[in-house]
Known about the structure:
The protein is of the alpha+beta class. It has a domain at 18-56. It is 39% helix and 18% strand. The chain has 2 helices and 4 strands; from the N terminus they run H-E-E-E-H-E. The strands form 2 sheets. Strands 1-2 form a two-stranded antiparallel ribbon. Helix 2 (31-47) links the parallel strand 3 (20-22) and strand 4 (53-55). It is elongated. The two termini are 18 Å apart. The model has no long low-confidence stretch (mean pLDDT 87).
Amino acid sequence: MADTVRGSQFEETGWITASYVVAETQPSDERDELLRRADQAPQRAKSTGGDRVETV
C-alpha cells in the first residue's frame, strides 16, 4: 500500500506522503496498552521523517 501511494500522482494535490501503523498484539497485552502503542506510532513516524510504515 505504501509503495502504491508513493508512486501515485493525484490530480488535485500532486504527490502525497503517508505513514502507516501496523500493530501486533503481544500475549501479555491489555487492550489499552495496545491502543496506547498504536496511538503513539503516527507521531513517531512523523518525527522520524514520515512517509513510512511504523510497527508496534
